[in-house]
Automatic annotation (TrEMBL), chains A, B:
Protein name (record): GntR family transcriptional regulator
CDD domains documented for this protein: WHTH_GntR
InterPro entries: Bact_HTH_transcr_reg, Chorismate_lyase_/UTRA_dom_sf, Tscrpt_reg_HTH_GntR, UTRA, WH-like_DNA-bd_sf, WH_DNA-bd_sf
Keyword rRNA-binding annotated: no
Native organism taxonomy: Bacteria, Pseudomonadati, Pseudomonadota, Alphaproteobacteria, Acetobacterales
Domain HTH gntR-type intervals: 10-78
SUPFAM superfamilies: Chorismate lyase-like (SSF64288), Winged helix' DNA-binding domain (SSF46785)
GO biological process: negative regulation of DNA-templated transcription
Record keywords: DNA-binding, Transcription, Transcription regulation
Length: 246, 246
DNA sequence: ACGGGCGAGTTGTCCGGACAAAAGCGGCGC
DNA sequence: GCGCCGCTTTTGTCCGGACAACTCGCCCGT
């Protein structure tokens, strides 16, 4: 048995798929052009329709071709779509805290949205939202950030069960069977508000960074808005985004 | 023709797929369990093997089942994997500038990496990298940010052709046929360095925000590192991440 | 000139068959 | 007890056929 026999032979449909991929890549069938029909491929290549169809199905799966009953197989891309999306594995990557920090809540209750808050939350001025205020504490008891969260009234029942560890939005997703579709995040820097400076044991008007985050549901509605003040000194907000498959 | 006839009947394979999906979701076949064999399904459902195979192929495609020749079809997930990845449509979303800003380069040339730069770039101290310094200018001529870029020596030939508009990493990708796989971004706040404060027409030690970004290639190598100082006043770094399909 | 209907061509669904390749299981030997 | 071998079972590849559903172009009627 010669070394040549060790190499497993690719299935016929895979070889036909590759031939068609090459033909498309070389521009023999440009974008918008029709590939040969199934019948033509069967006749030309001397294979069954079943085999041709499997090859074509894979081209569809790869995003190179679109097939329409009665019309034929049309080339829609010269190359497999390459991902341009860069992403993070989960929202938790935005949150800045591992499971070793705790949220100390010092106030929770329904409160009317002010003008600024209504704009942030995309709610109505005066509308009653669940307002939660607290301090994020590290493992050593050191305060890391102040936090100020507004939760949509639809999910206000979560109030008594807010998690000390882990993300509030996850708890809401689980409890109410909803799903965050989008997160809008804004980062700015400026002097710490007086209350935040005190809570974080920093001088009044020391520089801080404000992380504002709005979680949006699939239907476009705001789930919650959070504002977190961090002391700027020694704080770096890091993020790692990876290219996603196309 | 009654209204009932208007509803197109789902193909047989789709109905079988759905039955199997329901059975998996209800826990009738738990994760790790074997589904009935093709032969069993054909006999039970009184359909051809072709139809059963198509239904099973779709379960594989959906990520619920794995099939192994000789062994059978094993359930690997109870529910279709739900995306946890949140992403941005492209890196351009990180860059802060539309096409209406320009990069005014005031220095470019090979320079050795210092200690701090070597750490940022994940290169060697003393290694010669292409160093580019400049000012990001708005449409009205107002300075928006200072920028300081280190480009890997492998791509130093881009030096004379750095784009005034648009992203440098795109120009490098195109010219050298490489691909950014990952971006690491770090945001911090602190007093503007003297040179940056002057260039941005701000008081010395005014608060600024530093955006550091490292672009990593598919092989893990650094393409470039950029550091941009923005005045903190009036500057908000915003980002919108959307949940990606699973 | 425009719209509708019809026919030819093309893909989609579904049937049946055959052989190959891989995995699993049981029995036997060391 | 472990490993090897042979047989059975299960999925993978590929063939062929038939009918349904859809698309597109052409022709005819208004």
């Amino acid at each position: 048995m010669s070394p040549r026999d060790v190499t497993p032979r690719a299935p016929l449909y895979a070889r036909i798929e590759q031939r068609l991929r090459d033909a498309i890549a070389e521009g023999r069938y440009g974008v918008g052009a029709l590939l040969p029909t199934e019948a033509e491929l069967c006749a030309t290549l001397k294979v069954s329709r079943h085999t041709v169809r499997e090859a074509l199905r894979r081209l569809v799966e790869a995003g190179l071709v679109e097939r329409r009953q009665g019309a034929g197989s049309i080339v829609i891309a010269r190359e497999p779509p390459r991902g341009e999306v860069f992403g993070i594995p989960s929202i938790d990557g935005l949150m800045r805290y591992g499971d070793d920090t705790r949220l100390l809540i010092n106030h929770r209750g329904m409160a009317p949205l002010g003008r600024e808050e209504a704009a942030l939350a995309q709610g109505e001025v005066g509308e009653m939202w669940l307002s939660v205020q607290g301090l994020r504490i590290g493992q050593d008891g050191r305060p890391l950030a102040t936090t100020d969260i507004l939760i949509h009234p639809r999910f206000a029942a979560i109030g008594p069960d807010l998690p000390e560890r882990g993300a509030i939005h996850h708890a809401i997703e689980r409890r109410f069977g909803v799903e965050v579709a989008e997160v809008v995040q804004e980062i700015s820097a400026g002097p710490l508000p007086a209350a935040a400076a005190d809570a974080l044991r920093r001088k009044r008007r020391a520089t801080g960074m404000l992380l504002m985050r709005r979680h949006v549901l699939t239907d476009g509605q705001t789930l919650l808005v959070s504002r977190n003040w961090h002391p700027a000194e020694g704080f770096t907000y890091a993020m790692r985004l990876r290219r996603q498959e196309g």
